[in-house]
Design brief:
The protein is built from 9 helices and 8 strands. The protein is an alpha+beta fold and about 260 residues long.
Length: about 260
Amino acid sequence: MPSISSRTWTSPLFTSVYGAIALGVFLGFAGPFGSFRSLASLERYAFWFGCVAAGYGLAIATLQILRPVAAFARLPKVAAIVLVGLISTLPMMFFVAWALGVVHPGRSTPPEQLVSLYFSVAAVQLVIAGIAVWRFLGPQRPAPPAVDLNADQFFERVPDRLGRDLLALEAQDHYLLVHTRRGSALIHMRLSEAVQILPPQLGFQAHRRWWVAREEVAGLRRDGHQTLIDLTSGLTVPVGRTYLAAVRSGLEARSA
């Protein structure tokens, strides 16, 4: 069984989970909203860890729903997190109302108190959303100064609904699975043809079956004997041994 390397522990998913655990510990210790007095220590920690876990899952689910929306993809990072937090607060509010009934048997939340409960839950859920989705949102980049005709040649064969924010290309026989920030689609094209068409500054080939967009790379790590690229979307791409030097060179050029 391959061991989990140190770089795996610093991947976007793991670092966001660390933050969620730390928040659960803090909320359990601090006992906000009167929970310090009304709940015993173990109950208080269980309540807040349950809320953080539920809020984390709802934030990630909300992000996956919003990611294909073009207007969402154009939002600044902080605005995107606020939107994810406010939307995920709605189902989270009902979870909290249910959880309060569990730790306080017989207690119910009347409809007229839902508005105030929403704002109380939002205060915590916005923090949870920031922890959950920050590392999965791509950096805001200025638009390229000029239209690249080679890129246009490629995007003519990509469905308009996917937009032009490429994440990765995945070869599947004579077809190509195009991954963008709005979703994925299969087109009739070989990976070798796409690599020739797309400008080299846009990305690089990382494997005989994969090409990745340079600016969407969140990190490079090892998992046992396999080198992997983590993308800002959460997608993981394997790195072929023969491509490793070129991948490292491409990432160094990006940070230069």
